[in-house]
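Long-time lurker. I teach an intro course on protein structure, and each term I like to show students one example going from raw sequence to a predicted 3D structure in token notation. This year I'd like something fresh instead of my usual example. Would anyone be willing to generate the tokens for the chain below so I can use it in lecture? Attribution to the forum is fine with me.
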Amino acid sequence: MTEMLTTLPADVRAPGETYTLSELQAIFATHSLDARGGYSEEVALAKRTVDLDGVRWLLDHGADIEAESKFGSSPLGSRLHARQSDVAAYLIGRGADIHRVNSDKKPLIIAAGELTYESVELLLAQGADVHATDAMRWNALSVAVIRVKPHTARATLAMAKLLVAHGSVLDERTHPEMRKSLTSAYRAEGAGNRAAETELVLEELLAMFDVDPPARPRVLAEGEPITVTTTGWKKQYSELWKMLVPSGGRAKSAQGELVRIIGQIGYELKNNGGGNWDSHFEALRADYGAIVRTGTPLPEASLIRVDSALEAIAGGRYSPEAIDILTQESVAWVEANPVRFPPPATPFGR
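-- Reply from a regular --
Happy to contribute to a lecture. Here you go:
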């Protein structure tokens, strides 16, 4: 008898493409049904490139419905991560374990984290435990809520209402992240990208759990000059960031862009050691040097300091002193240019 192969062939399917049934049958003519492949060492039953017909065929021919990946995820868990509700529902109907008592990869927690409402509804109807937690002691409700972002606000609120209706209780460790998401929505408003409906949804979510909302950041009116209310360049920089820098993308003013640039550069060098430094960061470095020479330029002595600091961080070199100088001088330039004007055009978008 020919020995069956235990490693799946490399998956060459493009995103969204799946194997035909005849292709699967050809593969498993020479491979074990429990053969594994890919970084996660998943069985075919767990792979998103195998559609519902393929899953049905694999199970009908004896594939293990609980075969775990090297990270402990079952086929059901993998399909829930992929938001493939139809396949997940079929696996549940074929007897997939929805409780997984000895694993932190609980299907309900995975589905809640992915905000797949219909899968969570089905799991709850099948008796999934809303109080079960993962290795970090997060239950399904807490996992869904702590990941909330402005663009997922409506889905998160719907998920929270569903889980609370089934008796789930929110972990208070989620509160700071909830406030942070609403702050991001407020900042989008300050950048001219206001989505009032999103703010209302997030405010409802916080109110649902008696979480005090964050203070609204100061928003400048059209044409209003930039002023600061704090003292000391570090506090003033933080105030300018909240006032001028959007939650994503470039700022609309040169003043906001200068503040954003040194924030981006400082974060990369302090937190990543320059590991992601590339031509985009070099472009930001050049933009900084250009902006402080526009409008009312920095004094000559300050420009010398700026050029020296920019040279010190060239190539992604970490220099705390240079970052402090550039942050301080960004505040000084904004104070000298309180009337906002557009930033320089740049082909880079980081």
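Some talking points for your students: The mean pLDDT is 92. The chain has 15 helices and three strands.
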